[in-house]
Amino acid sequence: MARLAVIQFPGSNCEYETARAASKAGFDAKIVRWNFPADELAKFDAYILPGGFSYQDRVRAGAISAKLPVVGVLAEAAHEGKPILGICNGCQILAEAGLIPDLSGNQEVSVALARNVRDGQLLGFMCDWIFVKPQRPEKSLFMRYFLESDVLPIPINHGEGRFVLKPEVNVEDYASFVFCDSHGVVSDAANPNGSYLNLAGLSNQKGNVLAMMPHPERSAFSKQIPISIDSPWTAQKFEDVDGPWMKLFLAMREAA
Fold first, then answer.
1. What does the radius of gyration of the chain's CA atoms come to, in whole angstroms?
2. Among the four residues 3, 128, 135, 187, which has the most C-beta atoms within 10 Å?
3. Full-prediction pTM beyond 0.85?
């Protein structure tokens, strides 16, 4: 059975539900601390950096965690092709560490997650259900079971989730998730936080590292879907079936 490490940073708060979703997908999931011995951490087959507020989001969200020795282990794992998923604060850490999109292969930082702003107005912290759709899913091992036509409900929970990219980053080269409305239309109106090109998630060049701001672990089970949203998935809320995002964890497990 593939072994997965859910890395708990000081201030993580989504590690248990993340491990639960990964376990349901078939992983032997273990929550390990940021200071877990590097030689032991390197033995895992896959990694998830969960959501939360590591180091209280001081300086910038994810900035301090990205400088920890554990990131060196993750960089080597990424180079080896192991699956690495960063969710919300984990997404911010991967961006600050230069592991997405990793333009040159030397962890140059080319993506940032800035404060939520639309039309020049600071929006503050956001907690809501939104919709995303995949772009170029064939470029990511995480997205092998998704189609570009999919419209997927998922919650967001962040204060700094607006993707900002250097000009040399060509989004067309990478798999991504983009914000859309309940019918799959990508527009400014469907962009909750002003993110560049409606970006909600972005992969690295190899497709084995994915950083996303929405929370797939909170939409991995049908019972998590609220009945108040405009989605066919609400009809399955009271059925014991997988939610729309379980297939992301399944794809990750199969690639590990």
1. 17
2. 135
3. yes
Q: Are 46 and 256 in contact (CB under 8 A)?
A: yes
Number of domains in the chain: 1
**Catalytic residue flag (residue 217):** yes
183 catalytic per annotation: no
Residue from 96, 158, 160, 215 carrying the catalytic annotation: 215
- Give the list of residues 6+ apart from residue 132 with CB closer than 8 angstroms, or none: 152, 154, 177, 178, 179, 180, 200, 201, 214
Q: Tell me the per-residue pLDDT of 84-137, one tens digit each, with 9 for 90 and over.
A: 999 999 999 999 999 999 877 778 899 999 999 988 899 999 999 999 999 999
Give the structural domain span for 233: 3-255
| Residue 75: Cβ within 10 Å count | 18
Which residues of the chain form beta strands (DSSP E)? 3-8, 28-33, 46-49, 84-87, 111-114, 117-118, 121-122, 126-135, 152-158, 162-165, 176-180, 199-203, 209-212
Distance, in Å, from the CA atom of 149 to the CA atom of 120, rounded to the nearest integer, reads 31
| Active-site choice (14, 15, 17, 88) | 88
Establish whether 158 is a catalytic residue.
no
Return all residues near 255 (Cβ < 8 A) that are at least 6 apart: 46, 83, 141, 142, 144, 208
Q: What is the CATH number of the domain that holds 184?
A: 3.40.50.880
